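Homework help thread (please don't just give me the answer)

Our assignment gives two proteins as sequence + structure token strings and asks us to describe the second one. The first is just a warm-up. Here they are:
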Amino acid sequence: MSYMPGATTVGAIFKNGTILASEKRVTYGYALMSKSGKKVFKISNRLGIACAGLISDMQAIARILSAEVRLYEIENNRIIPVRSAAKLLSSILFNHRIMPYFTETLVGGVDDMGPHLFVLDPIGSLIEDKYAALGTGAKIAIGIIEEGYKDNMGLEDIRKIIINAMKTAIGRDAVSGDGIDILIIDESGVREEFIPVA
């Protein structure tokens, strides 16, 4: 049996911030390992990541990035720009290209320049976008987001689109499911919420 970690992870920027979401199912091929995996991580009060791939690698890069961001903010006495955090993670991933972390990652957050969302592959390629979807359910989720997304949307509007995209992907991707973790990042900080999915 070939190994393929399943997941659906999405993210988008809205008028005042960034929203990241992922489902909770952890699979090994088509074997269900856990229904309570965490694939979205708060990195700082203005920054978060969401991942699709190997859960151990997600946890490793979340720990590494969190420590590096904290170090940057202590040394420079200011909040790290989202682009700088994404480039830092890109360098970390590229430096492990021989034995890569098996994870696709969204880096989202807010800084003095506004909300940002970056997409990274396992070896550190970096693309900034307004919305993105990763993982085995991405092809389904991205269609829902593209249909409803508009620039400068409010939080409630984008939240509905993200939840709808996640629920649709979960309904059609056997290795995604068991609820949705959401991370909302704006100037007031980071808020986490959980949406059960029947």
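The one we have to describe:
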Amino acid sequence: MSFKELGLSDQLLRAIKEQGYTEPTPIQKQAIPIILDKKDVLAGAQTGTGKTAGFTLPILELLSEHAQSKGKSPVRALILTPTRELATQVHDNVVAYSKYLPFKSTVIFGGVGINPQIGNFRRGVDIVVATPGRLLDHIGRKTVDLSKVEFLVLDEADRMLDMGFINDIKKVLALLPKKRQNLLFSATFSDDIKRLADSLLNSPKLIEVARRNKASELVEQLVHPVDKARKRELLSHLIKQGKWKQVLVFTRTKHGANKLSGQLEKDGISSCAIHGNKSQGARTKALANFKAGTVKVLVATDIAARGIDIDQLPHVVNFELPNISEDYVHRIGRTGRAGSEGIAISLVCVDELQYLKDIEKVIKRKIPQERIQGFEPDPTIKPEPVKKKSNNHPRKKTVNKTPPPSSRSSRSRSRDRLK
């Protein structure tokens, strides 16, 4: 099946061709016709499956069928994402695919100046990609009007719920027209997601490309048992011995990401850390350097890694296992994307054996273990409890230099700025 057979216009087909895509992915084959048929969608799809184009292309097609008259464009499509990185990635797709269409779009997130965003709204935009918190800041300032929204997309809805955005989402939903098309995309279908879908979607069509909590079958998974104190040494050994060119490494905390990145630099391995406390400019620069290959290792927390879209990323390493089992699925999904193979390696100490068991229950398989000679764990070391709460989720209140006159709590605003 070709993109033309899916019913897309010549302008969109031209833009798709320029992006180098010739054949739709499974999620695109299923989602595009359903969305063009103006049905609500509940889609289970992991990142790397082409889901962004799966909802962006049909929305642009439908917007084209009912072009607005001249004048200031109202917001007709709203796409909510959990993080700044993902919002930027989705907006880049919107810009690329709408190249030959007369639509204006903008991306809205915290951590950057609000005035340029206000200026974009004043000039008029058709499509808004936003994180929930900063969007509510604009709503509080009355700088955005959502009364004409025809399409609502919740992208990576599971992550938005994990990050505590449910109340923010409900506030936004209350301001939207009742008559609209709703599209919900989630990597997993938890009970919370089902409840949200029941309240949001109208007789939705279910699309499930990746089976529930199923890790990519193209990703080779491997566990290296090792003592906690020797993890960094083993990681450096693996990178150097394997001559790895590009590796995404996950830590549980922001402090851990900074510490590990600095240690790798001392080992002569180029590295950058990316997490919520980094400025948007620093995060963008680190990601660009990693994609370009000038930085070999990107050390990230779970939240900061959402939206990282890198074709043919060969290696993902869990320096520390996540304390939420489903996050393991998200992590290893950063490799093995778009049909390419990848390997996900977990460095597991005795403290994390219960986490490993929980993960294996979720993915319904045992992960092979391989001991590296010279790094075998000391059998006399007893496990110590690992903190159940992750420090990835920022909880400290931050100061907004230009606080908006919004009823939304400062805690909620600060959470969005740090995402």
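TA reply:
I won't write it for you, but here's a hint about the kind of observation we're looking for: The chain has two domains: 4-208, 219-363.
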